[in-house]
Write a structure and sequence with these properties.
Blueprint: E1 2-5, E2 8-11, H1 17-33, E3 51-55, E4 59-63, E5 67-71, H2 86-95, E6 104-110, E7 116-119, E8 131-137, E9 140-144, E10 154-158, E11 163-166, E12 175-180, E13 193-199
Antiparallel strand pairs: 1-2, 2-11, 3-6, 4-5, 6-13, 7-12, 8-11, 8-13, 9-10, 9-12
The structure holds succinic acid and fe (ii) ion (FE2).
Residues 108, 116, 133, 135, 142, 175, 177, 195, 197 line the site of succinic acid (SIN).
């Protein structure tokens, strides 16, 4: 366990290869029920390079007209999101440090070349709950800073099976993914990466 910054906990190789394979299989099931969609920035409508879906009672999304939000229904199918896989609920119980279940698991799919700009996960109303983040597939360069956009940043490489818990004084830190490293995924095809983030949305 490495504390990258106060409350920003990094657990390299948290998941074994077999556990990673089981998570990928579970997420394939989620994506079958709730297909990946392409979110867009509020107002400008500029599309993200990452595609997304969710599981859990709530799902995070963004589009030009509605902006960043959680909602109960998939934006394209109109169906409820599928359940959060049990292994991820167990992970939350182990590491989240709060006695209330996660309500959303955002599934970010990075095809080769995708990235995610610096942002804060700030749409949740339970500041005591962390965001619990699982990396699968290609390695990436993860950047993190302080709670102000202009605070200095550092970066670290995340590998498949690594866990990051964004909590405490870092709960509202800026973070993002600068790039993926080609040729680093033996778990997912075509140099792709999955990131799963568990979130508590409503006050516990
Ligand atoms: C995110 O901040 O939503 C994604 C972080 C990551 O892909 O590791
Ligand atoms: Fe985030």
């Amino acid at each position: 366990m490495i504390e990258l910054a106060s409350g920003l906990i990094y657990r390299p190789a948290h998941f074994s290869r077999a556990e990673q394979e089981d998570l990928v299989a579970a997420i394939r099931g989620v994506v079958r029920a709730a297909p990946l969609f392409t979110p867009a920035m509020p107002r400008t409508g500029k599309e993200f390079s990452v595609r997304m879906t969710n599981c859990g009672p709530l799902g995070w999304m963004s589009d030009r007209d509605g902006g960043y939000r959680y909602q109960e229904l998939h934006p394209e199918t109109g169906e409820r999101w599928p359940a959060i896989p049990e292994a991820l609920l167990a992970l939350w119980r182990d590491v989240a440090g709060i006695d209330a279940p996660p309500e959303a698991c955002l599934v970010n799919f990075y095809a080769a070349g995708a990235r995610m700009g610096l942002h804060v996960d700030g749409d949740e109303k339970e500041p005591r709950a962390p965001v619990v983040s699982v990396s699968l597939g290609a390695s990436c360069l993860f950047r993190f800073g302080g709670t102000k956009r202009n605070d200095p940043t550092k970066s670290t490489r995340l590998e498949s099976g690594d866990l990051v818990v964004i909590g405490g004084a870092s709960r509202l830190c800026f973070h993002g993914v600068d790039r993926l490293y080609p040729g680093t995924s033996t778990l997912l095809p075509n140099d792709s990466r999955l990131n799963l983030t568990l979130r508590r949305v409503n006050p516990a």
